[in-house]
Amino acid sequence: MIVQENDINRLTPTQQAMLIYSLYAPESKAYCEQICYTYRGPLNAAAFATAWQRVIARHEILRTSFSTDDAERFSRLVHAEATLPFQQHDWRGLSANEQESRRDAFLKADCDRGFDLGTAPLIRVALLKTDDEAFWIVVSNHHIILDGWSMSLVRAEVSQFYQQLAHDRETDLKEAPDFTSYLKWLEQQDTQQAEKFWRAELAGI
Fold first, then answer.
1. Is the pLDDT of residue 71 over 50?
2. Using 50, 70 and 90 to split pLDDT, how confident is the model at 70?
3. How much is the pTM?
4. 43-58: burial string, b at 16+ Cβ within 10 Å, e else
5. What is the 3 state secondary structure string of the chain?
6. How confident is the model over 4-55, as pLDDT tens digits?
7. Cα–Cα distance between 57 and 132 in angstroms, integer?
């Protein structure tokens, strides 16, 4: 693990709340985000895994872990590298009912596994093969690094990298946004004005 000194930063208020809750109730699965979708067609598993790894290398938030060593100041640590946990299972020899039963058990076990917030990346991918050209793809992450809207962007980037790797197509990806810049922008906001706004919006509730 290599973390540069200038890559140790404060959290957003939302991340702070999630981290505190995760420490208070470590058994809770409230922030385990999990999607499972079907893919039909030929799939180059090695290229697919590499495409995910390239997206992780591209975004610092996907290479981030969280430190709780100082109770007065939580920190996020951006790692120079973070290797994606990637699983493959071949269930082609099973009946459709057995495949669905295995899938449901896998999804539960995967969610129960949770995430170690001190270890990056806080995302993992599994490829469950059900036929020669049929797969279930499972993507799990901690909500502290991604929400549903962001995940749709991540999956779109994975698709572009996969097309480049498997089919030699060009990507049109621009430079990745800088999460640290967003933190700096947050620090410049007038929190008193924000509190005044929300107190007015929620008056009487």
1. yes
2. low
3. 0.87
4. beeebbbbbbbbbbee
5. CCCCHHHEECCCHHHHHHHHHHHHCCCCCCCEEEEEEEEECCCCHHHHHHHHHHHHHHCHHHHEEEECCCCCCCEEEECCCCCCCEEEEECCCCCHHHHHHHHHHHHHHHHHHCCCCCCCCCEEEEEEEEECCEEEEEEEEECCCCCHHHHHHHHHHHHHHHHHHHHCCCCCCCCCCCHHHHHHHHHCCCHHHHHHHHHHHCCCC
6. 444 456 788 899 899 988 888 888 899 999 999 999 999 999 999 999 999 9
7. 30
- Buried-state track 75-84, b at ≥16 Cβ within 10 A, e below 16: ebbbbeebeb
Using CB atoms within 10 A of its CB, is residue 6 exposed (0-12), middle (13-18) or buried (19+)?
exposed
* Amino acid type, 72: E
Burial status of residue 149 (CB atoms within 10 A of its CB: 0-12, 13-18, 19 or more): exposed
Q: What is the mean predicted confidence (pLDDT) over 84-102?
A: 98
Residue located via tokens 């290398």 = 57
94 in Cβ contact with 104 (< 8 Å):
no
